[in-house]
Design brief:
The structure is a single chain. This protein is an alpha+beta fold and about 230 residues long. It has a single domain, classed as archaeoglobus fulgidus dsm 4304 superfamily (archaeoglobus fulgidus dsm 4304 fold, 2-Layer Sandwich), CATH 3.30.2170.10. It has 5 helices and 8 strands; from the N terminus they run αβββαβαββββαα. It has helices spanning about 10-20, 90-100, 125-135, 195-205, 215-230; strands at about 40-50, 55-65, 70-75, 110, 135-140, 165-170, 170-175, 185-190. The protein has an 8-stranded mixed sheet with strand order 3-2-1-4-5-8-7-6, sandwiched between helices. Strand 4, helix 3 (about 125-135) and strand 5 form a beta-alpha-beta unit. Helix 2 crosses helix 3 (about 125-135). The radius of gyration is 16 Å and the shape is globular. The model has no long low-confidence stretch (mean pLDDT about 95). The chain binds 2 DNA strands through strand 1 and helix 2.
Amino acid sequence: MTLPHTTPASEAEAVAVQLRLRERVVADSSGPAPGAPGTVVVGVDVAYDDDRDLVAAAAVALDAASLEVVAEATAAGPVAFPYVPGLLAFRELPAVLAALDRLTVAPDLVVCDGYGLAHPRRFGLASHLGVLTDLPTIGVAKNPPPLAVREPPRPLAPGRGATAPLLDAGDEVGRALRTRDGVRPVYVSPGHRTTLDDACAHTLPLTVGVRLPQTTRLADRLCRDTLASGG
DNA sequence: GCGACAG
DNA sequence: ATCTTGTCGC
C-alpha cells in the first residue's frame, strides 16, 4: 500500500489521524468510468467474534459487467480497536488491508460496507481505505450517517434508482439511493478518486434484484464463513 | 444530563 | 457486528 496503517492508542489520536489523512482524499473521477468493460470491482467486509478476540475480513473481486467472481481472499487476526461510531475504520482496516494484500488481481474499484464522504468528519471507512491504498473507493452503507446538519428528510420516490441528497452544512456529501422498488434505500458516498455521481452509477449495476451490492453480499458471506471455520 | 451512533 | 423462528410476498 501507499501509506502504512497504524492503530491509534486513543480515540483522540484516531480523530487526529482522520483529520490529517482526509487532506489526501482525491475527489475526482480518476477511477474507472461506470460501465467500463473489464472493470474489476472488489467488495470488502469484516466479521467479528469479540469473545475469541478474532476478526475476519474478506475481499471478493467481480467482473463489473458479468458479476462473475474473479478472485477471493481472506485474512484473520486479533481485534485491533473497539467499535466507536465515527472510528469504524480503525477496527476494520487492518484485516481488510491484509485481505486485499492476498488478492491476486488488481482492483479497479473497492466497494466498502460503510461511509465515505458522508461521515461526521467527512472521512469514513471508504475514504480511509482509499487514501492508504490509493485505490478508487466508494462507500455503500445500510443506515444513514449522523450528519451535523441534517436536512428535513426529503421523501424518496418508490422506484429503483430514486435518490435523495445527503446534505452536510449545505454540501451534498452522499445520496440515499433506492436499489429495489419499495425497499428502503442504501446510503452511497464517494471515498477516494470517485465522484458522488459515479459512486451511484457504480452501485446500480451491482444491485440488480438485491438491495445491497453483490460485492458486499459475497464478501459478507465469505468473512462470516471464515470466522465460523476458526480464523 | 439524555439520546443518537456505519459495523 | 451479534443473539435468532417464523412468516409474508413474489
